[in-house]
Amino acid sequence: MAGAAPQEHTGKGGKKALDAELNLVPFIDLLSCCISFLLITAVWTQISGLQVASSGGPPDPQQKVENTIDVRLSLGDKGYQLSMAGANIDIPKLNGAFDRKGLQEKLKTLKTSLPDQTAITVQPEDSVAYADLVETVDTAMGEQLRNVTVAPAN
User: Which of 13, 45, 121, 147 lies at a C-alpha separation of 20 to 30 Å from 4?
Assistant: First the structure.
């Protein structure tokens, strides 16, 4: 039997010794498999992650560009609401789903009027599904708005 202590008698009544040697090779094999699995899957977490900023603190003053405005995109039960420079644009849902084409057209219009605009804040309500949030962020990034911040709805 592998890893078992040899049968030695101590001479006192023919009892076995209490010392035993453990075979650590299977344990080391298991750990090396786990480490290699974790290293391989660590790349997948970087690929599938969304790169968005959190709204935890004030923005860096060095990143302020003078030809930009504060753009907020709210997601709610009624659809999108795009707020910029004091104006609110409502994009209602179509057949119970968010109108991504309508949003894409409005963001394209925004981008043509302000080519330096790269920042947008997305504010989903609690009832919005995560898949809708991800598709909205993808739509914004597809329209060259690369600095996406996800913040809770007010």
Answer: 13
